[in-house]
TrEMBL record, chain A:
Keywords: Coiled coil. Residues 73-100 form a coiled coil. This is Poly(R)-hydroxyalkanoic acid synthase subunit (PHA_synth_III_E). Residues 101-127 are annotated as: Disordered.
Automatic annotation (TrEMBL), chain B:
Residues 93-337 form the AB hydrolase-1 domain. This is Alpha/beta fold hydrolase. It comes from the Bacteria. GO terms for molecular function: hydrolase activity. It comes from Bradyrhizobium archetypum. The keyword Coiled coil does not apply. Keywords: Hydrolase.
Length: 127, 360
């Protein structure tokens, strides 16, 4: 086999790894400054505000076009999710009721479960 | 002469041949990558015991002939999905625990709905976790419960354990859990109180969008995403690499939104006032001091954790009131500590040997 030091693939991977580390370190240093925090939060705040305004405008436009807005679609998706959650809840309740009906005295279900008798292996047995 | 210069034409020819084969494989597998979905994750058989808003409680079906007396409740971080601990057979922490004879429950989260923006820290610590603990007790028939908290799930477990210190928690295991939020330097800077108006953000967006959470995680290592894509292309001929990449990538980008009020409390109480570290934390008017925790505790931290640096996590063991306590530092990063080849070799066996003898 070729010497790993001469292997172009290994050299390439090492270079990529070093570039990644270098760039991350440089970026982290730049991002630790208060100026970065100020700029980031100004942009973030402005973007959130602009997005909100744009969203409101789009909503009016879609309403005029008799089309559902994203918010309405998201709302529908949420309704579906909520129905799904309620179905899951009903399923969980049914499961519990079924198990309780089989259990001798409620609590620990009658679905056969292994006994809780396990002991840890002795030191010698552990790998 | 050639040999003396370190050149071996036979091996160069082999190498060229292998590279050509890989290039062909890359083209074929590259098309395959985009035309197929990733592996199915989180498929260990489980029953849903409870679903209430953002809270989901699962019980994984035991596979061992006999199990330990004390069940385990895993509390997942509120920003991410629990399937990181149940990737695929052979690489699933849950499967590992089941095979080693533990009875495993998981408190996992789903995205809070817009109307759940008012969920507070109190709802998580004083309602969701105690409710799940109660349900675990009821389902298992056991009074004692061991709790495992991952990342911020660890913070929630600590808050629960410090408030309900005479409760049913028998053992506590935290994975990469931050205590001193001053030491999360970049997050501190992103949320600098002079420039970050958390009230304005929460009041305008309601729940904090997952894109914002994901980008703040990615900003900690801005080059890594691009590099990982380059590495994927290089290794796309390798099915195992692609499978691992797809699992981690899917999980990493599957970030959950955070309930607005909860995010506001995290920012003000933990990021700004560092109350957990300063022993001034309270939830719903109930003091949450780490020194109240007296149960056996194991804290696993990662040597190369860029999300929760060691300095942010190292005080936990010192601050809890337990006498049976241990910190273990393992090689790896924030995620590779708990999932993947590294975890299989290091964390999982360590946890088993620690918890087994405390679960009878």
């Amino acid at each position: 086999m070729a010497d790993k030091g001469n292997d172009p693939a290994v050299i390439w991977q090492t270079m990529i790894g070093e570039m990644e580390k270098g760039f991350n370190a440089f970026a982290n240093q730049a991002m630790s400054s208060p100026e970065f925090s100020k700029a980031m939060n100004q942009v973030g705040g402005a973007t959130a505000g602009a997005q909100k305004q744009l969203g409101e405008l789009m909503e009016k436009y879609l309403l005029a076009m008799n089309l559902p807005s994203r918010a309405q679609l998201v709302g529908m998706a949420e309704r579906l999710q909520s129905i799904e959650s309620q179905l899951n809840e009903i399923k969980a309740l049914l499961h519990q009721v079924h198990r309780n009906s089989l259990a001798p005295e409620g609590g620990y279900g009658a679905t056969p479960r292994p006994p809780r008798t396990k002991r840890p292996p002795s030191e010698g047995e552990q790998k | 002469m050639n040999a003396a210069a370190g050149l071996d034409f036979a091996s160069i020819s082999e190498r060229v041949q292998s590279e050509v084969q890989r290039a062909i494989q890359r083209s074929i597998k590259g098309v395959e990558y985009f035309s197929t979905s990733g592996p199915s994750l989180g498929s260990t058989p489980k029953d849903i015991l409870a679903v209430r808003g953002t809270m989901n409680l699962y019980h994984y079906r035991p596979v061992a002939d006999e199990i330990y007396r004390v069940p385990i409740l895993i509390v997942m971080a509120t920003t991410n999905r629990g399937y990181i601990l149940d990737m695929v057979p052979g690489q699933s922490f849950i499967e590992f625990l089941l095979k080693r004879g533990y009875d495993v429950y998981m408190l996992d989260w789903t995205a809070p709905k817009p109307e759940e923006k008012s969920l507070r820290m109190e709802d998580y610590v004083l309602d969701f976790i105690p409710d799940c603990v109660r349900r675990v007790q009821q389902d298992s028939g056991e009074k004692d419960v061991s709790i495992i908290g991952y990342c911020f799930g660890g913070v929630l477990s600590l808050l629960y354990g410090s408030i309900f210190h005479d409760g049913p928690m028998k053992n506590l295991i935290c994975f990469t859990t931050p205590i001193d939020f001053r030491e999360m330097k970049l997050f501190q800077n992103f949320s600098d109180r002079r420039y970050f108006d958390v009230d304005r953000l929460v009041d305008s967006v309601g729940n904090v969008p997952p894109e914002m959470i994901l980008s703040s995680f990615e900003m900690l290592r801005p080059a890594s995403r691009t590099v990982s894509q380059v590495q994927l292309w290089e290794n796309i001929w390798n099915d195992e690499y692609v499978k691992a990449y797809r699992m981690m990538d899917r999980w990493g980008t599957d970030t959950l939104p955070l309930a607005g009020e909860y995010f506001r409390a995290i920012t003000k109480d933990l990021m700004w006032d560092n109350k957990l570290y300063n022993d001034t934390m309270s939830v719903g008017g109930r003091a949450a001091e780490l020194s109240s925790i007296k149960v056996p505790i194991l804290h696993a931290v990662a040597e190369h954790d860029h999300i929760v640096p060691y300095d942010a996590a190292k005080h936990l063991i010192m601050k809890v009131g337990s006498t049976d306590k241990e910190e273990v530092m393992l090689k790896g990063g924030h995620v590779s500590l708990v999932a993947g080849a590294n975890a299989i070799k290091r964390l999982w066996p360590k946890l088993d040997s620690w918890l087994g003898k405390r679960s009878t």
